[in-house]
Amino acid sequence: MGGVALGMTECQVVRRAGQPQNVEISADAAGERATVVTYLSGTAPGIYHFTAGRLKVIDSVPQAAKPEKPKKKTKPKPRTAGSAQHAYVQ
Fold this sequence. Notes:
Elements: H1 10-17, E1 22-27, E2 33-39, E3 46-51, E4 54-59
Antiparallel strand pairs: 1-2, 2-3, 3-4
């Protein structure tokens, strides 16, 4: 499929990255179309900022904290008849 690069159009990015989780369309201070397309997962997760239909900025999405792995419980070593140490006093 290919990657996503600055300068691509909104349509090109969506064709490559698939259906986004969120799209916001507004006007910037200069009155030009400003679009923010958000992908939280998939092959190209990120927040894509477009001005006048062209990709200008790509922000990373916050990663969910990975749950800690439970600590393994250590089992006491079984004592065998040969493993006992005896001190003999004479």
